[in-house]
């Protein structure tokens, strides 16, 4: 397999043939028009300028100045990243890509960069969709992207406490492969699972497998090691503590601005043996939302509780329904879960939902999206879920804007927020593309509110698609912000969400965070411009 | 009812009569010896020096210089506090007790104190057992204790999202009384419930009702308002977010060093309607621990899962058993929970446990300790739980050392930690009192480890009991620290846990926290000496 420098995942997995034709047919059915394919440019044609910095001899072996390497680390994997890659628009490229082998290398690289004022961008899988790894760092003599991929081992497993010490650079599948012989799993399956790393999940507070309870990676952390320019911060392995503000919670979500996460003790699970799942159709969206809220507040804690609205159900699950489809899944390594599913279905029926035949039984091996189950419509949606980023790339090559954004809000504000965001997206699409489709699904639900995830599809114009998307994104971000949502439930802040994050974040907390950053990173070299203004 | 200035709770609820005689009989059975009662001193005999500071006219009405008021705010409610009160040893007394009526008053008080360099001690119920409210603040011209008791209202209830905006100074019972008409409850019942406040729970990361999942108040917080000298930090109401490090998590556990928490949106529950509970006897402690671990890792998530060791079961539940008693409780507002209890009991039987007859049925109104249920032994333990602080005071008057401390550790280290702590306590008691008893119970359990809570009973010597206890406490703290436990699972750090907290806390995090403190409290007046060295 070869990783794509410009797009999602593996080159060999790109959308083509019959899948591409079917995809384009679906799109033209929704948005009639001519679709022209645009090939990605060759690396040589990008004309990257030479690196501005040279590592000291002791670090030279860790550093790559290869143009393909530098190009592949210039952007994340947002729609705007893909399109800019396709257009050969790589204005900010790291001067070097450094690959430390261990914590000592991380320290040495930080020391060198701190001394020289060189910006350092910690890099996991590079799947950021918020400009988190893009070297837009003015005022530094150079930029080094620190790719942790060589630090990819499970170092220790504690089967009694069900926890493991894991290096931050490990990708999802390799992590699960190392845990499998111990009968354990992290069960953290973001959509990016195959192409993102533990360190990236921790740095960005990634959302994962569980729709309830353990929604973010934060809750699965027992302790962390973070190399900061001011020294190594190593928290103690503890199942719980009340000793001052949590050290780990400062580094969770710090997005590479306070230090480089090198390893963590993570809480693990046994693989589920019992499972029950179903999907439920609703004729009315408000009723579907009410049913989902009832389940979220019931204490049943489903592993999966994903409400697709009618458009999402149609486009990605091939289901035609008036209100929406709720995909429910329960799982356990210890006990039967059909009682829980039955009660959840009862709550759905109370709100007019029509369940499909419920299914249960043995579990498959831990894989992302494995639990979306409950009928073939939902199987369709699940495979769609994993293909979405590839399809997004194929559409981008055809100038179709296809992107997502997410938030979370309390239940009392959801209806208003949903309307405001949907209208803002439609209005913005009308302005820049004339038309477009907005979909919504819940990725996670809490007793006090949902995490809605929106999809946008619009016919872009080659050469203008980034500006068109940026216009739409600004409009929806504004709508989210003014409706009381968070600017990000799990995609992180990076550089792209900064204007709205700055308004969401309490002022005194910003001052405290900034002071903490100065204490840990006095030279201000760590991921400048992310979370905080560059100094 | 009259609050005791020197001891726990209400004067009218103090242990006396038959309860006192029975208590003293139990103690002398365990530790033979003469027991002499020592009356608390009168306020006038304390000889408090005059306040060193005078409030500006605009704040005078908020401030009390009454000696009884000042004496009642000089100490928390640890054993060492009670004994020092009984001995009239009040070396550090606040100059004034200020009672703001609203956020504006809080700001004005902070402004005045910041200008003058006067130390400010935020004060909720004053139930700290770690020196958290004791004005041991050298280097300030005066100390003002800011008692939030006037800010005690539920300001807003959102029944849809099940959340309420609540002022920080409200005590447990008054909070629940205000929520009851809405059919909602916070269900946070620390042992101190009646005499502690929401703000105190948040500032100290208090442990509450739930033995699993929502163990700390932290998880019930939707958003917070904190008045800092640098301005008001107001976070957004959100069910979840991935936007940078969590602002709330910086203030949770800040123990009054970063600001004064004035209100919070808290996540609420419906009152449970279904309940199932049981107690299980074990002949062997290691088997009881293994059973508890199996339940903690099962995903059954009992509301109560409290393992009493043999000594704890004997002293506080009147049960004679070789290994221990596990108290189990499940509850739900939505669905039956007997399946869960049955499975938990099966896990107990797998480890040699003998369940009492399980019970279930209707719920009583929300009260602390209500769910310790499952047979009369456990009812005994429950009433004992609520009487413990009063009994501790009665024993203190008779020079009997009776105190608790707690920690949390991973399951793989529990046996070693338990042995080290128990031996350290016994050895220290032999050194200073010749004899004594150590008990252990789990207050909370996690998939990756328990939170053990230890009780110590030893025959103290009048006039030396504080020094004797300090010797024991230092020995057990040292054992906890070197065995890998946390210095506090839910009692907070205050001034008394500082030496061990400083060793537990990662150095770079300490630097970050200190920098955050300087940004928010540039004059260094907020609770000096707590969490961080006084400047």
TrEMBL record, chains A, B:
Gene Ontology MF annotations: alkylglycerone-phosphate synthase activity; FAD binding
Active site positions, chain numbering: 453 (proton donor/acceptor)
Domain of life of the native organism: Bacteria
Cofactor(s) annotated in UniProt: FAD
Keywords associated with the record: FAD, Flavoprotein, Transferase
Positions of the FAD-binding PCMH-type domain: 90-271
InterPro entries to which the protein is assigned, alphabetical: Alkyl-DHAP_Synthase, FAD-bd_oxidored_4_C, FAD-bd_PCMH, FAD-bd_PCMH-like_sf, FAD-bd_PCMH_sub2, FAD-linked_Oxase-like_C, Oxid_FAD_bind_N
Residue positions binding FAD: 122-128, 255-261
Residue span of region Disordered: 351-376
Amino acids binding substrate: 392
SUPFAM superfamilies per record: FAD-binding/transporter-associated domain-like, FAD-linked oxidases, C-terminal domain
Homology family: Belongs to the FAD-binding oxidoreductase/transferase type 4 family.
Record-given protein name: Alkyldihydroxyacetonephosphate synthase
Protein species of origin: Streptomyces echinatus
Lineage: Bacteria, Bacillati, Actinomycetota, Actinomycetes, Kitasatosporales
């Amino acid at each position: 397999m070869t990783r794509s420098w410009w797009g999602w995942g593996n080159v060999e997995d790109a959308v083509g043939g019959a899948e591409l034709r079917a995809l384009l047919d679906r799109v033209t059915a929704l948005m009639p028009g001519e679709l022209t394919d645009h090939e990605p440019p060759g690396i040589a044609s990008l004309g990257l300028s030479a690196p501005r910095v040279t590592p000291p001899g002791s670090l030279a072996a860790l550093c790559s100045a290869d143009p393909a390497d530098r190009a592949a680390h210039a952007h994340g994997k947002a729609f705007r990243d893909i399109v800019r890659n396709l257009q050969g628009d790589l204005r900010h490229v790291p001067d070097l890509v450094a690959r430390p082998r261990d914590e000592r290398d991380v320290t040495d690289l930080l020391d060198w960069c701190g001394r020289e004022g060189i910006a350092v961008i910690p890099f996991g899988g590079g799947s950021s969709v918020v400009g988190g790894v893009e070297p837009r760092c003015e005022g530094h003599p150079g930029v080094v992207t620190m790719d942790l991929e060589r630090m990819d081992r499970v170092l220790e497993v504690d089967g009694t406490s069900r926890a493991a010490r894991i290096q931050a650079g490990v990708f999802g599948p390799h992590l699960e492969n190392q845990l499998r012989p111990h009968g354990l799993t992290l069960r953290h399956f973001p959509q990016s699972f195959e192409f993102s790393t533990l360190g990236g999940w921790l740095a960005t507070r990634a959302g994962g497998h569980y729709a309830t309870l353990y929604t973010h990676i934060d809750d699965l952390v027992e302790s962390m090691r973070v190399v900061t320019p001011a020294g190594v911060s190593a928290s103690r392995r503890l199942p719980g503590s009340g000793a001052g503000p949590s050290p780990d919670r400062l580094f969770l979500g710090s997005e590479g601005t306070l230090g480089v996460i090198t390893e963590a003790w993570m809480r693990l699970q046994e693989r589920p043996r019992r499972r029950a799942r179903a999907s439920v159709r609703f004729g009315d969206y408000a009723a579907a939302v009410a049913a989902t809220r009832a389940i979220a507040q019931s204490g049943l804690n489903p592993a999966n509780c994903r409400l697709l609205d009618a458009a999402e159900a149609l486009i990605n699950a091939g289901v035609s329904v008036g209100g929406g489809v709720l995909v429910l899944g329960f799982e356990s390594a210890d006990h039967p879960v059909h009682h829980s599913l039955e009660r959840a279905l009862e709550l759905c029926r109370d709100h007019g939902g029509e369940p499909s035949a419920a299914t249960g039984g043995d579990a498959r091996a831990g894989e992302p999206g494995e639990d979306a189950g409950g009928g073939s419509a939902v199987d369709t949606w699940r495979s769609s879920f994993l293909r979405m980023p590839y399809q997004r790339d194929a559409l981008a090559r055809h100038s179709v804007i296809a992107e997502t954004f997410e938030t979370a809000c309390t239940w009392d504000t959801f209806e208003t927020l949903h309307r405001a965001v949907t209208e803002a997206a439609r209005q913005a699409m009308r302005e820049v593309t004339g038309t477009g489709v907005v979909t919504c699904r819940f990725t996670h639900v809490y007793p006090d509110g949902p995490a809605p995830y929106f999809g946008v599809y619009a016919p872009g114009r080659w050469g203008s698609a980034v500006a068109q998307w940026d216009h739409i994104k600004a409009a929806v971000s504004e709508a989210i912000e003014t409706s009381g949502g968070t600017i990000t439930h799990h995609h992180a802040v990076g550089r792209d969400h900064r204007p709205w994050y700055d308004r969401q974040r309490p002022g005194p907390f910003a001052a405290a965070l900034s002071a903490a950053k100065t204490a840990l990173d006095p030279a201000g070299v760590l991921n400048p411009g992310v979370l905080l203004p560059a100094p």
